[in-house]
Design brief:
about 270 residues, alpha+beta, Double-stranded beta-helix, six-stranded mixed sheet, three-stranded antiparallel sheet, 5 helices, 9 strands
Length: about 270
Amino acid sequence: MTSHLLLSPDDVPAIASEVFRRVWRTALDRPGFELLRFAREVSSRELRRAMVDLVTAFPVRFVPERFGRFDQQVSSKFHRDGAPASSLLVLGYEPTRVRSRFWIADSSAAAVAAGLSLTDYLAVHNPMFPDGEAKLAPFVTELEVPLGAAVKPGFVGDRSRGPTGESFLVVLNNSLLPFDGRNPLGVLHKAVIPSPDLTGPRNGIEGSDRAGREQAGRRVINSIGFTVLCWEGRSPRLLGDGFSGYKAWSWTPTAPARIRSSPSTCTWCG
């Protein structure tokens, strides 16, 4: 199990440099991921605002390449979200009574140990199959995700009335690049939902800003994929992620809102 960092939604930049150091790694002595719990109860919009503000405060400039918000109650296998080869993934979990478990697999470390590039390693040991997942076992870490049954010291809101959970973030290095001492090194992730709640609607999520109580039977995830605009003086083109000629703030998010010119005008996160 892992520990976590505490994030104040009123001062997100205070913790940004440490999150960046742990996640955007170029060597294997750092985890490549981080779990963040909030210092107080946050609304759905505050959660998404913190996701954007956190990455905006990183010392390297990133730009969003996709947005999503969905009720996900299907267990997954170890995978990397589809994205440019140099990419960051920020997942924001809203309060829910649906219990889940979350694991990280350090596929970059596994590839180095096997003497293969990351793409070659995943091709030979596909984690979607049992043998491939078994190969990753020495490199797997389970995250201690909040279950919400107890009141956390300093946390606003009484959690003693039931396992409604709390909002939290998981920040992942989602890159797919070989180890060379300069490239960002990615990880894989998976979640298992032992007992899905299938009583509520699966589509048409409208969102709730009242601690998620109306959506307690859902497992709502906010997802933002970021790509690096410039890393150590190299353009995205040189990083091999296919963004030749890319200009900041010129994308069209998938859903549910548009970014007009900069993070400060994001209608998705308020």
